[in-house]
Design brief:
The complex is a heterodimer of chains A (405) and B (272). Chain A is α+β, with helices and mostly antiparallel strands and 405 residues long. Chain A contains 13 helices and twelve strands. In chain A, helix 3 (85-94) packs across helix 8 (235-249), helix 9 (265-308) packs parallel to helix 12 (368-394) and helix 11 (323-360) runs antiparallel to helix 12. Chain A is elongated. By secondary structure, chain B is of the alpha/beta class. Chain B contains eleven helices and ten strands. A six-stranded mixed β-sheet of chain B has the order 6-7-8-3-9-10. Classes of the chains: A alpha+beta (405), B alpha/beta (272). Chain A binds chain B through residues 1-2, 4-5, 9, 12, 16, 311-312, 314-325, 398-399, 402, and chain B through 70, 73, 75-76, 95-96, 99-100, 102-104, 108, 110, 114, 116-119, 123, 127-128, 130-133, 135-136, 175, 179.
């Protein structure tokens, strides 16, 4: 019995009872569809986390002046004066896993242009900052080490500030005032959107950190050091090396707390991704229960079908069908049921995730391997749950089967 | 085991089946073991049927004729004895080999037609060819040919429910013949048909028997149906009681002409 004949016979048998066939397939359709949908939503969420992590910067390691306690009172982060430019230089020189370093000073400031003003975050940074944050300049250029050395009055401006101060006017080359100090705008930053913490990243002004130190804040220390590790894998060891280096430089005794904090946004992202994965796995396993139920549905219908068609089986055996012919016939019917259901389920799942994307505005992505796995899995369900009924059919005694009414 | 081998060697020496003998059974027994009791359905039946014979098998229920037909049809194996079909010993074959024999050597016609419902005549007829591995195109051609030979030209696409009882039985005959079997086994083929249609079917049998020299075994209760055969074998208590040629054999074509034609075929036929 050749393959095409087997498939043809199976399709014919299923076509005779269309309603029943569709209802039986429904279990598999819903199961596969639900699994694809949940996986697509999970994948979309995890992609979004990855994307926002990438957007945050290039394998960022963040060192901030840490909280320190004086007589039982904890001061907030960045409240200490112990983090120095020399620390940043030491990290640059002594931690080989770190490829880029930018010292940083933060402040908030009123920015004035003409009769417009805007309150924004002023950030003092080094030239490496833009590469570390993967933050390109839309127009103009970034400041140089020379600007840092000379504490130049130059700045780069974020798009939100541009909108609020300049409207449609081109800000490049214009001068704005921060605490009555005139700053020349040498570059407009490309839009970066929201940070994973919900802040508008474009609402900022970036100037050389030395300028902030000397002309605005009047401090000699720095608030943070932003670094790039050489790869995602070296973030963790780089963090440890930096901590050890800074403890040594700050002459901390083993029983003393750190007066700085080394962190990485990838920690947070990893935690988020992890919980997302667990959620997806949980939902997908719940969804796959319905796949199992669908399989039982197939088995049930196949058993009914074998009983109903006992006489047909007898006739087929009388005209020369062997046991394996009969088994193959029923197995392929179960397989066609489950594969057809699986394929429709894949379509439904893809359609469903597109619908979720467009209606709920959730990012979804159907991983191609999920489609392959879903189809293979439904084939497996068909074979597993079709085997017993097919075996039962094949084992029938032709004489008994012919006599069956 | 050695005893059996010896026995079968003796059998060969005793009666080498001639080339013209299609069915040759020798002292076959069939015993059903029902736990406490043993039912002896056949108690030593020996019979030879030559090519081109038309044999009616008769007997009351429980006489062993059905068991005999099942054995001859290779649906079952004898407990003891030897069965030569078309020169091959088939009494010791495996289930799978028996399926092959049924496919190639035997055509079945049943009382209840046993056509596949909601399946066209052609597809019903090509069924044995599917299991012989004949390619699709050839299957359809041969099925059409077989339908033509039983006078059902142009009914290829009809489903059983669209055919009269007589026509359904003719589809079944076409199915039995499509693989050119050595023998045709008909188990009460007219049991579900009215007398007029019965004669019609017997006409088909007689014609096939004459024109193609087809060997036919026909199980029937009715003496007037047996009268269309050439030879009658009567079973009783698991043994052959009588084995005689038919005297005053009826010609179905003649009988058919003589039957009253006023009755409308479609009204009284029940489709199984």
């Amino acid at each position: 019995m050749d393959f095409s004949a087997v498939v043809r016979v199976a399709l014919r048998a299923l076509g005779r009872n269309k309603m029943r066939t569709v209802l039986t397939m429904l279990g598999i359709i819903i199961g596969v569809g639900a699994v694809i949908c949940t996986v697509a939503i999970g994948e979309g969420a995890s992609n979004q986390i990855q994307e926002s992590l990438r957007n945050l910067g290039d394998n960022i390691v963040f060192v901030s002046a840490g909280s320190v306690s004086h007589g039982g009172v904890h001061w907030g982060n960045s409240a200490t004066k112990t983090l120095l430019l020399s620390d940043a230089i030491a990290i640059q020189q002594q931690v080989p896993l770190i490829i880029r370093v930018s010292p940083g000073v933060g402040a908030s400031a009123q920015v004035v242009y003409g009769n417009q003003n805007w309150y924004t975050r002023l950030r003092g940074a080094g030239p490496a900052y833009f590469d570390i944050r993967r933050w390109p300049v839309q127009e103009g250029s970034v400041f140089t080490q020379h600007d840092v050395d000379s504490a130049a009055d130059v700045c780069l401006i974020g798009l939100t500030v541009v909108q609020n101060l300049f409207g449609d006017e081109n800000p490049l080359g214009k001068t704005i005032r921060v605490q009555s100090i005139p700053f020349r705008i040498i570059g407009v930053l490309a839009s970066k959107g929201q940070s994973p913490f919900g802040q508008d990243e474009d609402d900022t002004l970036i100037v050389p950190f030395s300028t902030v130190q000397k002309k605005i804040a009047g401090i000699s220390w720095i608030n943070f050091i932003m670094c790039s590790a050489s790869s995602q894998e070296t973030i963790k060891p780089a963090q440890n090396q930096i901590a050890a280096l800074l403890r040594e430089r700050h002459h901390l005794r083993p029983d003393e707390e750190d007066d700085f904090m080394v962190s990485s946004p990838s920690d947070l992202a990893e935690t988020q991704a992890q919980s997302g994965r667990i959620m997806t796995l949980l939902l997908a396993s719940i969804a796959s229960v319905s796949l199992l139920v669908g399989g039982i549905g197939i088995m049930n219908i196949m058993l009914v079908s074998v009983t109903e068609r006992t006489k047909e089986i007898g006739v087929r055996m009388a005209v020369g069908a062997t046991e394996s012919d009969v088994q193959m016939q029923f197995l392929s019917e179960a397989l066609v049921l489950s594969l057809l259901g699986g394929s429709v389920g894949v379509l439904g799942g893809v359609g469903g995730s597109l619908a979720v994307s467009s209606m709920l505005n959730w990012p979804t992505q159907v991983p191609p391997e999920a489609i392959g796995i879903a189809v293979l899995f439904s084939a497996g369900v068909g074979i597993f749950f079709g085997y017993y009924p097919a075996r039962k059919a094949a084992r029938l005694d032709p004489i008994e089967a012919l006599r069956y009414e | 085991m050695p005893e059996e081998v010896l026995q079968s060697q003796l059998d060969i020496e005793k009666s080498p089946p001639s080339a013209a003998v299609v069915i040759h059974v020798e002292n076959i027994h069939k015993t059903y073991d029902l736990g406490e009791v043993q039912v002896h359905a056949l108690r030593g039946v020996s019979l030879s049927i030559e090519r081109g014979e038309f044999v009616a098998i008769m007997g009351a229920s429980g006489s062993g004729k059905s068991t005999f037909m099942n054995l001859v049809g290779c649906l079952d194996r004898p407990t003891r004895g030897r069965y030569m079909l078309d020169g091959n010993d088939v009494s010791k074959l495996s289930k799978q080999e028996l399926a092959g024999i049924r496919n190639h050597k035997i055509g079945f016609v049943f009382q209840g037609f046993n056509l596949l419902a909601r399946t066209s005549a052609v597809e019903n007829v090509e069924l044995p060819l599917i299991y012989s591995g004949v390619p699709h195109q050839q299957r359809v051609e041969r099925a059409r040919e077989a339908l033509k030979s039983v006078g059902l030209e142009g009914r290829d696409a009809h489903h059983p429910s669209q055919l009269s009882g007589g026509q359904q039985q003719r589809v079944a005959v076409a199915r039995a013949l499509v693989n050119h079997p050595a023998i045709l086994l008909a188990d009460e083929p007219t049991g579900n048909l009215d007398s007029r249609t019965s004669v019609e079917i017997m006409e088909v049998f007689q014609r096939l028997n004459e024109e193609r020299n087809l060997t036919i075994l026909l199980v029937t209760h009715e003496a007037d149906i047996a009268a269309y055969a050439k030879r009658v074998v009567v079973f009783r208590d698991g043994k052959v009681r009588r084995d005689t040629p038919v005297e005053g054999r009826l010609d179905a074509a003649e009988e058919f002409k003589r039957l009253p034609t006023l009755e409308n075929e479609d009204d009284e036929e029940e489709n199984a």
